[in-house]
Amino acid sequence: MSTTLSSIADHLDSLAVVGAGFFAGTALYITVGETPALQDFGLDEHWSFFPHMYKRAAVSQSIFGITAGIAAIAHGTRINGSSFDRNLWIIAGTTFVAIIPYTVFIMFPTNNTIINDNKETKLGKESQISVTQRKEILQKWAGLHLGRTITSVASFGAMVFGLSRHSSLLLGW
Fold first, then answer.
1. Which domain holds residue 84?
2. Which residues are listed as membrane-spanning (predicted)?
3. Long-range CB pairs of 106-114, under 8 A, 24+ apart, other chains included
4. Which of 12, 24, 98, 158 has the fewest CB atoms within 10 Å, measured from its CB?
5. How many domains does the chain have?
């Protein structure tokens, strides 16, 4: 293996932890900071702000999640002799990779409902979603996002724990 590739492989754990930390930190901020603050502003403001929040967070969260997942799985496959540590990294990485289909198949329909309604109202059309439905949809989204937050924080914690055990591991490839 080339020196550059070997150097990258030797730092997959750190890359995974950084990606996971950014993802989990952003998710946690959205869950405990941004969403409750938007709820305090009122339903209309929260509803109309959502597409802006989503647009900015989606790209970075995708990059952080994929980076964390792939790097953690790759690091886990390099661990020889300790099935606990190998499995810890592979499970934590797989959890981050699994957030992608969770987002696409479970969260996107809710996201798209909010985003599409906002597009329609910007075009001057009246919203087809009642105030009660808006509140329910935003609460549903917050619950779905909470699941993603808990999962990412737990996986990030597992990776940090894995890093603390790093000096005792035998790495291969």
1. 3-171
2. 12-32, 57-76, 88-108
3. 106/144, 107/141, 107/144, 107/145, 107/148, 110/137, 110/140, 110/141, 110/144, 111/54, 111/141, 113/137, 114/47, 114/50, 114/51, 114/54, 114/138, 114/141
4. 98
5. 1
